[in-house]
Input
Amino acid sequence: MEIKAFLKVADHYKVLCINPCCKFTPRGLRGQYIDQSPNHYQGDPVYISLAPLLGIAATTLILLTTLANLSRLRPPNRSASAATTLPSLDVLIPARNEAHTIDRCVESILGQHYPELTITILDDGSTDDTPQILADIAYRNPQVRIISGEPLPAGWTGKNWACHQLSLTSEAHLMLFTDADTWFAKGGIRRWVEAHIITQSDLTTLVPDRRSNSPAISLVIGFINWFVLGLLPLQIAYKTSIPVLSMTFGQFMLFSAAAYDHIGGYASIKESVTDDVSLGRRIKSHKLRWRLFDGTKDVVCEMYSNNRDLIYGVGRSILPVLGYKTLYLIIGIIAFLVFAWTPVITLILHISINSTENFYPYLSALMVFFLGITWYISQRQFRQPKWVAFAYPLAISFVILISIHAAITLYLKRSSWKGRIISKPEKPT
Output
């Protein structure tokens, strides 16, 4: 009856309106409104208010999640006993053409003064000066072991095969997987080993300080920061074994050796392109303890040296994280586009036509404010440029473009990384 009444009134006023919520005619979009008299039918109030109220609810939830996560990302209070009971630690580093970063990485680890520390580095078929640099490092430091990688077997990705070989050499109680482009503040590894012990974690991972040398890289890192802080409810993640409620960073993956063996290690995810995410999800699915902290004061990395590496490096991870489900990608693209741009466009339209006679501009402004605040908090927390918070629609749009490019290159079998072709695995992990 309500719909029929609306259509009847619309016909009487010669209004062309696809959406009953809409208060504008096509002419209204040029600054003229439909009849606002008390007798004019305004539509069902539920339909008018539902969409913006859902948007307000969503942005409020993101803001609350952001604020709640701030305290949970902090390290636990240091235990006096933890400092005297440090277990043996093996830092495992795969290296493939890392001549410009590997020396800084290893030197930062050697400077930790950790009591029982071994550094094992695998040269994964490097074609630059990496082997010579590694040989020199090992000659000067008996704590460093260098091994040469075996040929890549079928069914494995390069990094996973390298890390699997590294894990087979380890006899320590703890294994820290890290990347050759990562370096550590003095005492940083010790602090997080202590946190690992205090929290009785099976896998401790840290959000690193990711250095950027271009605006494009800053936008993408900004999106990742916002996603972690605003869309990953850590309180729920810590209390459930839902695998997708996790985010693991390959720059710092500290495993208890027993937990690593229990989940099957790298052999269980040998085809995965996103080894860090996959290992974190396996820890959760096996009902083991996964913990995420803010490690930006202790762990620093240079993820990408140029925009091309950024596009291919980030792009290769997006579909694997979604389980190679194209439908999930499409839904995500639509949802993020609507979420990023609808409040902004609505606000701009109402300002341009000087409309203040309904609540839409105020709700849109509130949504933009809430989103901007969450982006600002995430950039400040993780030591990224603050200007990214004011460009969040552009950041989301750029990540979407990378996602589309990644999907196209993957299905055309043109996706590659460090000279190796990336293809969809037979059984996505």
About this structure: The CA atoms of residues 206 and 295 lie 5 Å apart. Residues 1-43 form one domain.
